[in-house]
C-alpha cells in the first residue's frame, strides 16, 4: 500500500484546527447568529426594546444597581479579609480560609435556599421578630435577599483572589516605605493599592458579570425585585416571545462583555501603575 504524502505545515495546522473550528461554529457562531436575527422578525425596534419599554428598562436598571452594589461591597470586604488572612498567622488560619471559600462549591439555588432559611417566612429573622412582638419580618424575597445571596456567592471568590494577591506583595517595598516615615494610610495608598490593582480590576469585572447574569439565586429569591435574567426567562418560557427574549439577552450580553473588557484593560495597565508607585516609594 503506498504511503500518503506528508502534509505541509499549513495543511497540518488546518487539520488540527478543524475540530475546534467546527465546535466554535456549532456552539457559538450559529446560536449567536440566531440570537442576532430573531429580533428582526418583529422589526428593528425590537433591538432597542430594553431602552424604550419602561418595564424592561426598569429591570435592566435594577440589575445594574444590584450588581454595582454587590461588586463594591464584595471588593471592600474581600480586600479587608484577604489582606488580613495574608498578613496574619494564627492557629486555624487555613481552616478559616477553607470555610470562607466553601460556598464556591454551592450552586445559586442552594445559596438562595440558605437566604430563605435565614430571612424567609419561616426563617431565623422571622422567628426572632415574632418572638419580639414585631410580626414575622422577611427579607429573602426582595432586594435585601438578592443582595445577601449575590454577596454570599461572590465574596469567597474575592477573598481567595485577594488572599493570593496580598501574599505575593513585595514586603521590601512596605518596609522601605515605613523606614521613610510613611503612615499606615500612605503604605496602603502607595504600596498595597498599586499591588492589588490588577486583582481589583479582574475581580470587579468577574463579580459584576456574575451578578448581571446570575439566574439560580435570582430564580429562588426574585419575587419582589425583578432582574433581567428573570425577565428573559419569563419572556421565552411563559410567553414564548423568543424575539424579545433574544433582544434582552443581547443587551445583557453586551453590557457584561463591556464590563469584562474594561476589567481586562485595567488589569493590563495596572502593572505600569504599580511600577511607577514603587519607583516613587
UniProtKB/TrEMBL annotation:
Its main location: membrane. The chain crosses the membrane at residues 12-40, 60-83, 95-118, 130-153, 203-222, 242-263. Residues 60-263 form the ABC transmembrane type-1 domain. PROSITE patterns: ABC_TM1 (PS50928). This is ABC transporter permease subunit. Keywords: Cell membrane, Membrane, Transmembrane, Transmembrane helix, Transport. It is found in: Cell membrane. It comes from the Bacteria. The lineage of its organism: Bacteria, Pseudomonadati, Pseudomonadota, Betaproteobacteria, Burkholderiales. Pfam families: BPD_transp_1 (PF00528). InterPro entries: MetI-like, MetI-like_sf. The keyword Membrane applies. Belongs to the binding-protein-dependent transport system permease family. It is a multi-pass membrane protein.
